[in-house]
């Protein structure tokens, strides 16, 4: 798997292209993807749920004009987008409410079965205007909003989507598959499966400067030992690390804001950006193959690239460690 993402440590997370949190124009979305390409980014990650297919449509509009062999394209299964629209008078807008309320109004059907997986892939190929996918993740089988229900969703995916993706990989239809989740536990379980062997995992929000303790306990060491890639999503913790108001897709608590302020104070003292610290911290872990921050403005892409190349003095990391702002066993950039 590592050869797929080699040289693509900085990727592009396309969730904002689905009008996450705010509505953006097609022109702004397409300019952002263009900027990512011009900055040398060749790893693009999306999903059907991002704006009920809107992110895939926008991403495909640009990438279809680029040489297909030059980039890695990842999407997800577990959601089938229906032609039927939501009733705008309904209070229950399903999974379109909240994060993607500004996206397309199509109904979204949760489906982790083999048939649903194949339908989802077929739809994604059309929206992305491509004939193949490199990585396919089983999306959101574990979210905090499900509580204990995630175990039953995992089992449904194990007997449906997992087996379908395992077969598609073996047949050469896709290059790799895994889980795209925001909890550590389902990845740990998947690593121990005998009847399915994922190649990579997209872990969103659980390995960042603000939240990494649980992942360090077992997941990261086991993934590195078994040569299974971890791709980190949401490295800025939904934006709060870089001036935003959200943490874990919700308004950040006073405690989180205070922790960010402490990190920023130390960063300012060493004349570095928190964005650089956030990205370089994630990539310092040997299990991490790539990090995929999201962006909805072209200027943000240049900032991400600059942050990757920013020189951070060892004294910054030493102070962060001494102030107990990172775990004592967390790998730090050298």
UniProtKB/TrEMBL annotation:
Residue ranges of every copy of the NADP-dependent oxidoreductase domain listed in the record: 9-322
Q: What GO terms are given for molecular function?
A: oxidoreductase activity
Its GO CC terms? Answer: cytosol
CDD domains assigned: AKR_AKR15A
Q: Which residues form a coiled coil?
A: none
Q: What is this protein called?
A: D-threo-aldose 1-dehydrogenase
């Amino acid at each position: 798997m590592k050869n797929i993402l080699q040289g693509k440590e900085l990727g592009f997370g396309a969730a904002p292209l689905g009008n996450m949190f705010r509505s953006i124009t097609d022109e702004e979305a397409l300019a952002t993807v263009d900027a990512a390409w011009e900055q040398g980014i060749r790893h693009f990650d999306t999903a059907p749920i991002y704006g009920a297919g809107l992110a895939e449509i926008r991403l495909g509009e640009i990438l279809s004009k680029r040489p297909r062999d030059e980039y890695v394209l990842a999407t997800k299964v577990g959601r089938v987008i229906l032609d039927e629209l939501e009733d705008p008078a309904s209070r229950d807008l399903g999974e379109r409410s909240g994060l993607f309320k500004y996206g397309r109004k199509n109904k979204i059907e949760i489906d982790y079965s083999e048939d649903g997986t194949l339908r989802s892939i077929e739809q994604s190929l059309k929206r992305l205007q491509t004939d193949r996918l490199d990585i396919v993740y089983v999306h959101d089988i574990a979210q905090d909003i499900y509580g204990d229900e995630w175990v039953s969703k995992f089992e449904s995916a194990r007997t449906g989507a997992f087996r379908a993706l395992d077969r598609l990989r073996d047949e050469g239809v896709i290059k790799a598959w895994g889980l795209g989740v925001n909890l550590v536990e389902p990845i740990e379980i998947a690593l121990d499966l005998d009847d399915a062997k994922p190649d990579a995992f997209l872990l969103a929000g659980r390995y960042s400067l603000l939240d990494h303790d649980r992942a360090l306990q077992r997941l990261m060491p086991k993934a590195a030992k078994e040569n299974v890639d971890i791709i980190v999503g949401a490295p800025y913790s939904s934006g709060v690390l870089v001036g935003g108001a959200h943490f874990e897709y919700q308004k950040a608590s006073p405690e989180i804001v205070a922790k960010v302020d402490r990190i920023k104070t130390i960063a300012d003292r060493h004349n570095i950006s928190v964005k650089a610290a956030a990205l370089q911290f994630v990539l310092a872990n040997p299990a991490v193959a790539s990090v995929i921050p999201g962006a909805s403005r072209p200027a943000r892409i240049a900032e991400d690239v600059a942050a990757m190349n920013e020189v951070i003095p060892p004294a910054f990391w030493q102070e962060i460690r001494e102030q107990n702002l990172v775990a004592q066993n967390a790998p730090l950039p050298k």
